[in-house]
Amino acid sequence: MSPARPAGALLVAGTTSDAGKSVIVAGLCRAWARQGVSVAPFKAQNMSNNSFVTLDGGEIGRAQALQARACGLEPSTRFNPILLKPGSDRRSQLVIHGRAEGTVMAGDYIARRSWLRGVAAEALRGLREEFDIVVCEGAGSPAEMNLRHSDVANMGLAEAAGLPVVVVGDIDRGGVLAHFVGTLAVLSAADQQRVAGFIVNKFRGDPELLRPGLECVAELTGRPVLGTVPFLHDVWLDAEDSLASPVGRVVGLAAPPLGDAWLSVAAIRLPRVSNATDVEALACEPGVVVRWVDDPGSVLAADLVVLPGSKATVDDLRWLRERGLDLALRSRAEAGGPLLGICGGYQMLGTTIVDPVESGAAGPVAGLALLDVVTEFAPDKVLERPEGRGSAVGAGIAVRGYEIHHGRVTRNREAPLLDTVSGGEGSAREALWGTHWHGLLDNDRFRRAFLEEVARLRGARGFRVSPSTSVAGAREAQLDAIADAVEQGIGLARLEAVMRSGRAPGAGPELLPVLEARLRGR
Hints:
33% of the residues lie in helices and 26% in strands. Helix 4 packs across helix 5 (155-161).
């Protein structure tokens, strides 16, 4: 560690989920990395079905993979030692150091809290010994009082590791000033002392109109608002909360087409959709509009339908049938409408699913029977980063991706979508395609060939693919834009001072008496 460089660690908490913690952490990581500082991200516990495979065959939250890229690092399980993947409202798969450790209910998880705290503390300790700065991301809100005794990722982590805490709030939702004050107010006196200040995120408007409110927050809490980060319209790739994407939402910026025709993509919003970020690569292309949908009409009307991954394939297949989406998909397939299934979506397109692992189904479950494929689930999860070449589409084009699934294809009577060293991967029949590979559409040349095939099948002669769109380049540009906004809106020096002293300059040690009086109605 260089004595001339800033050193330490801090926790970026949020007043709510989706307040912008992941984005702020990514921006800080990129900003310090650009200065030559050795920096790493850390999220003790993440709850997300958007995940990524590390080189050593582990699994972490996709947001931490992006934050690692912001640091110039290869994603590692050290950056996210505990991952919860919800399979239902009450049940989640527990992933420790990248490996699935079974399924837990909420009560089971709380019972393991001492062990889990040790897992997180040990991982963070190792990172702090190796890197100048570790930027930790909280989970949800630190003010969830019912969970404080079992907390692993917020104030529990700050307490165990001696971390100063900055709290991010989303002003675009409204009520951010009350969120700041209220968050601090419900914390214990000891936890209040760990809060060094606040950060306003997603601000658009006149800073002078906001300034009196920020001064009031500082007066009431004794903590400064350390900065204001503007609303960034072009930040949408690898969104941590894609699971909450509303139906009808347009993914990306929908750039105008290069030719005189658009392509519409309908991504089916499954209840337990996983790796929803797969469709974002399509949205990077000019003239391609991607929407999340859940109705038969949208499925029938789109140029391309994507049936994405799922953490509960059998349950989500039942949901498809309850909404009549299975009939729409069949009608579409019979009419030659392009349809792509990814991972769990690919499994649904087959004839049969045998899943005693995730769903606990007693026997075989009938799939949509659009592809002659049988999938059987095994307890051990496939976690790989394979490479290959296009076959049915993009013949000969080099591709790579990543796999996260329990299901194995035990019968495939279709042509392979891809060629790999171990044989064919995926399935293809006319305008129907399926693959277990996530990230396949991130391969720029393959994606262009795929969209050209969709346009041909749909008779969209006026559609033109861009010869220069780069998904990797778009991610890098987004990270730099976030870093620019964080540097300008907050300033790294203020946060370095927080890490050195454990608190912001001038921050009060505990909640001010004036606020206590107001809370008591005086």
